[in-house]
Give the backbone structure.
Amino acid sequence: MAIALDTTITNEPAPVVDGPHNPSAYRPETLALRGGWRADPTNGAVAVPIYQTTSYQFEDAEHARSIFGLERLGFGYTRTSNPTTDVLERRVAGLEGGVGSLAVASGQAASAFAVLALASAGDNIVSSTDLYGGSWNMFANRLSRFGIETRFVDPADPENFRRAIDGKTRAFYGETLPNPKLAVFPIAEVAAIGRAVGIPLILDNTAAPLLARPLDHGAAIVVYSATKYLGGHGTSIGGLIVDGGDFDWAAWPERQPALNQPDPSYQGAIWVETAARLGVPAYLASVRATMQRDLGAAISPFNSFQILQGIESLPLRIERHSQNAAAVAAWLKRHPLVRWVGHPSLQSGPTRARADRYLRGGYGGLVGFELDDAATGARFIDALKLFYHVANIGDARSLAIHPASTTHGQLSPEDQALTGVTPGYVRLSIGLEHIHDILADLDQALAATRQSHPA
Ligand code: PLP
């Protein structure tokens, strides 16, 4: 018996929401569980099936030709689209208030594609100094080898972004809640500077999903490492690029040539026009059809499924991560061996004002603190019993790491200082264990640093 192909799952990655920033869509708790999916139209399966397939049977030669020719949307090959991944893309777009998203193999791939879709050799981007070490390295040492310059500026003064622009600046880049400083990015201020001259703000929202919705404040594109809080259980690497859909690329033909000039890799397609004809966002169409096609950082359908599972409980988890982290920060602040604690709940002045403006429902699960020196930091890490010592954040379990020798270890000491990493700095990603157990482990590990101290 032939199985009917149902167009609701084989076609048309339409927006899950009724427009940019979905004011009237379902609330996040509902979207996290239900966005982008009702049931499998062929058999009624309620859980999103894992479509573990590389390819899709075309209806006929004309159907295949029209998909490849970008005359219609449809699944052709899992490197560029997949039905399981499509649900993930719709769900995250809905949660962010975007008009669509692209899931990729990792957060690194998401950041790279987000920039490479706009910038070519000879161009530049202006990036916040407050970055994940891997993003810093990619910009400073990898994209530079492709001829793309990154101008790093301190986001504490948003005007630094304006000062760094020239005629070849294609994008601004930052992180909503960057560790280690955990000083929230001035989203609206920097986005407005860019929008006035045709430069989109790309914001990495990895550390603040649901807490912050950067598109509501003017960011044009949001990227995620889905490996962290979205997946939430430390099982699967993935990334996402979300398009806000309200950046007018066509209005800036000289500033944004990648989307406004004929693309020889797609029979001269001009992305702002091709996308308008298809009814999809131009930026996202180009990232999927060129970056993902050519560089191939496809996410596996199984990982898309795992990340969807994680997102179902994200609203509950992010609330508890934030509560536990605030309790840890307050406790560490009173501890005599701790020199400094970083968490938005402890900030004051303009930094706190930004946290309160852009974060809703909590200040996130990351806490940083400083011990006397690198050796004390290492003794603390080695004494932890409950916390895992891993290079990850956003897991349901509590995690700790010493950034100067690990995540930021490939940066020069000067660059480490610019990103806020000092030798005695310890990063905690506070999990969902009982707060008493979390504090007890920190207490005994801090005590152990004193016991084993040679002086
Ligand atoms: N962005 C941030 C803020 C991160 O913390 C990370 C990873 O630690 C990444 C991006 C890269 O993500 P992935 O490890 O999924 O490639």
